[in-house]
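Narrative summary of target 7.
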Amino acid sequence: MGLCNRLTGFDNSKRDFFRTGIAVEAKTTGNATRLHHIGSLDQLSPQDEREQVFLFSVGIRQDPTAPRKLTSYIADIEVLLVTAIGEPDDSALADFHSKILSYGFDRSQFDLYDREPGFLAAHLTPAIFRGTELRQLTASDFVGGAPPETVRSVSYELEVMASPLDESATRRVIDELLSSPGPDFS
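Modeled conformation, tokenized:
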């Protein structure tokens, strides 16, 4: 099962990436610190007692002088979508193209994307954090254990202060996300 099949996207989805027992929320920031917008009280909370939640974080900025455009990164991903013998995997490519289209990326408009500002090298390296180690906002932070009855939704900015997973634990999260159910991140 490929990563594209685990990607649900930002709109009307439970998680950015998930399968039974594991969820990964992906966040980017242009800030100097890992300051990320959290869209709800539940976004980083497990949906059931068996689910483990992780936050993928990277700091990246756009700049008009940056040579690598969005299309460069799309092409980087496309060359990785190959079969076991190294030929383009048409099914994986179709899944990927469908996913990026759902995000609004129209492949027929490559020339327009290439006129947009490019992306600088990551100023905050990609890292994965355990949700249990983040100090996110919860219902218990409100008087009475819930937001006031007139509040319809809550979003906030979370600065990640936890230590990222080491390389071995990061690999286990990725492998587990791509495997069949039954995570073990101890």
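Confidence is low (pLDDT under 50) at residues 182-186.
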